[in-house]
Design goal:
Layout (H helix, E strand, L loop, with lengths): L4 E3 L2 E3 L5 E5 L6 E6 L3 H16 L1 H4 L3 H17 L1 H12 L3 H23 L4 E2 L7 E9 L2 E5 L5 H14 L3 E5 L6 H12 L7 E3 L4 H10 L3 E7 L2 H14 L2 E5 L5 E4 L5 H13 L11 E5 L3 H13 L19 H16 L3 E4 L3 E2 L9 E2 L2 E4 L6 H4 L6 E7 L2 H9 L3 E2 L1 E5 L3 H10 L4 E4 L14 E2 L2 E2 L4 H6 L2 E9 L10
Helix pairs in contact: 1-8, 3-5, 4-5, 5-6, 10-11
The structure holds adenosine-5'-diphosphate (ADP).
Amino acid sequence: MAKEIYIAGEWRLGRGAVIQSLFPADQSVNAELSTATLEDVNEAIEKADQAWRQPSWRNSLPHERARILYKVADIIEARVDELAKLQTRDNGKPLTETRGLVMSAAATARYVAAACETMNDELTTQRAPDFMTMSVHEPVGVVAAITPWNSPIASEVQKLAPALAAGNAVVLKPAEATSLIALELAKIFEEAGLPKGLLSVLVGRGSVIGDAIAQHPLVRKISFTGGTTTGRHLAHIAADKLITTSLELGGKSPTIVLPDADVELAAKGVAYGIFSSAGQACIAGSRLFIHSSLYDQFLTRLVEITKGLRVGHPEQAGVHLGPLVNDKHLQSVDRYVQLAKSEGGQVLIGGEALTTGDYAKGSYYLPTIITGLNNSAQTCQEEIFGPVLVVMKYDNEQDLIAQANDSCFGLAAGIWTESYRKAWRIARALEVGTVWINTYKKFSISAPFGGFKDSGIGREKGRLGILSYMQQKSIYMGLNEQPNPWCD
Ligand code: ADP
């Protein structure tokens, strides 16, 4: 029987078509899932709107909401292996990576619990003797959380935890290919004691169900992670409704190797930055700029390291790259590689799918390095979201910064150097939301995350990430006998 969806605290078969979750390694069916209809959407949102207004939730104290999130963290952590496996079955990422994502989801829930307990409303300084002002933070109401297939558990908890800590209700629409973890999260929040109605998980097509959720008048915030085209569409909806958004979108992140970089560390870091998750990460370091003085040496080492990477079954130990999420995506990655060739690029390594033997049933693509392109080439400008690195040479810093910033995206960047002064100077000049110096893809839950330019609007994580699910209200209290001039 198809899996049920979670509508405002009830497990029920969605009234839409049945879809399948497939294991990208061999196309076997993980589960059949029922999907939501527009009727289900309306019901979930109307009940969510009633639920967040309930005095028992509205007036719940921070430590009471925190208690639920601490339990969520404990349950996630206790089930780490099982959840990692479920995540791997859905999107094909190697178990070592999905285990990391699960642990980061637990850490997020715990951080948000602690942070929400210590957040205060503000008393503004008294500017006049006759009144006192207080600024209080209140929930926005029903939040739409729409998430992608590449790191579901991490991005979902990153939205659910702060939105609920802030006193809202959430309707979550996971990517249809990878909805299993979201449904499991609903069970976890239920077990942790989240009152009914505050969370719904609606499986379904983005353009139908995701769109309907975003359009619903009772939805007062859209928190989205995914592609820039969809993000822009949701921003239009939000603009019409005059509601706020957090949009975490695409990237084409530059990694920069300065003349004094530690070649060995940097080459390994660059390979990890692009090829982990088989490049299916918005933050993948997909454009590499190497200083001409060490270009040949660096590239030789990078190719050697890439040759040593194991592409294989994501449940096997020691595998660096699993399959891509599905064959359609593999075709799109391969089209970019063919485009790069037609633009004059040379494929140094990789550049093809693995289609024989154990690889035959999965969507496996070799880690690929392309040289000979100019930053203005389409392959250097568009997000590929696969294991494809374009490499360019540079001579001077001004030119490097201009090229690194010559992108519609501005999500992240990496810098490899022994000189922290240079690293600082370049970090400040880059138009991106996150810069890693002598490391890559490191995250702290307390550091805000988000993009410049077409990579998004707003920041997730940190204390501001919780406040982004709230709105401020200023309350003035008159203190004297003549509150206004006309009362004289
Ligand atoms: P990706 O390229 O990572 O799949 P998408 O932006 O297509 O990025 O998808 C991310 C999420 O957005 C998924 O849950 C998807 O179903 C949803 N989505 C796609 N199109 C729309 C839309 N028009 N309205 C709302 N949600 C959408």
